[in-house]
Design the sequence.
């Protein structure tokens, strides 16, 4: 009894000081829609959390992990991320030509960020294949995007960090094998 009474203040304090994290709103660009550099700046600026690049559009009827805004107009100021269709060759880190125009627009936005800004490029995969294979593929894809931004656009490699998460961080509410999990996310800081 005394033990549970001692734990009560700790439990109450945890309940009072816990912060509810709102769901992220992701601005999702579909094939053929072009991202604007100003949207990248707004979304990678200090107050934002991420840009998500998908190598495949979500399957019809797929459940989004958070609200998705289909782009017909510029990105909302309340959005916390940006989703772009990016294609890689199957089982490879080779960026396909169809992905380059979006990465070029993304690079223009990154160049407009403050000089002290750091962008982390995170690679993710679906659950098909072994865990070790997916982890290495996600790392290679993140490095491939970084190298493209550095070599093609002259972005300082010191401002770009990479990380690979393999299949370990699937999108909430999406089948781990779904193509939407094969993505590269950008986080600005």
Sequence:
């Amino acid at each position: 009894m005394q033990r549970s009474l001692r734990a009560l203040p700790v439990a109450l304090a945890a309940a009072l000081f816990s912060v509810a994290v709102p769901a992220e709103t992701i601005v999702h660009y579909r094939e053929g829609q072009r991202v604007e550099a100003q949207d990248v700046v707004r979304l990678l600026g200090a107050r934002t959390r991420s840009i998500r690049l998908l190598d495949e559009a979500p399957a019809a009827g797929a459940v989004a992990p958070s609200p998705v805004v289909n782009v017909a107009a510029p990105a909302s100021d309340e959005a916390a991320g940006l989703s772009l269709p990016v294609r890689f060759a199957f089982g490879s880190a080779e960026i396909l030509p169809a992905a380059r125009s979006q990465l070029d627009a993304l690079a223009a936005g990154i160049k407009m960020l403050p000089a002290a800004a750091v962008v982390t490029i995170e690679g993710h995969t679906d659950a098909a294949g072994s865990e070790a294979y997916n982890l290495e593929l996600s790392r290679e894809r993140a490095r491939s995007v970084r190298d493209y931004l550095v070599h093609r656009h002259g972005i300082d490699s010191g401002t770009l960090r990479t990380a690979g998460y393999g299949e370990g961080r699937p999108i909430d509410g999406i089948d781990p094998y779904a193509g939407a999990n094969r993505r590269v996310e950008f986080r600005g800081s």
